[in-house]
Amino acid sequence: MKRKLAVVLILMLLVTIVDGCSSKQSATTEKVFTLEELAKYNGKNGNPAYIAANGIVYDVSNSKDFVNGVHKQCPECFAGTDATAIMSKSPHQSGKGMLDLNRLTKVGTLSK
To answer: Are 81 and 70 in contact (CB under 8 A)?
Structure first.
């Protein structure tokens, strides 16, 4: 009887561990945004502010450089868009700028 109970407990533990691992895996799956989906994250009307750069989607909602979804130094760079082309002409493509981007929260990738 004790042996059966031990086997049942071990099986329950294994099921719990496997279920926990699969939940963590699905929670860490990156979201893939289309340009249409990204456009919803424009920082207006209470929406979060996201930008894409080099295929990565970043959350700029709490960035001091973005106000109401618009970059303070670069008014043609606004949330909800792929900013790769604009950023290729800016300091963000060089050392310090890329460090600035890497400090932002990555929320997904941009579909091709």
So the answer is: no
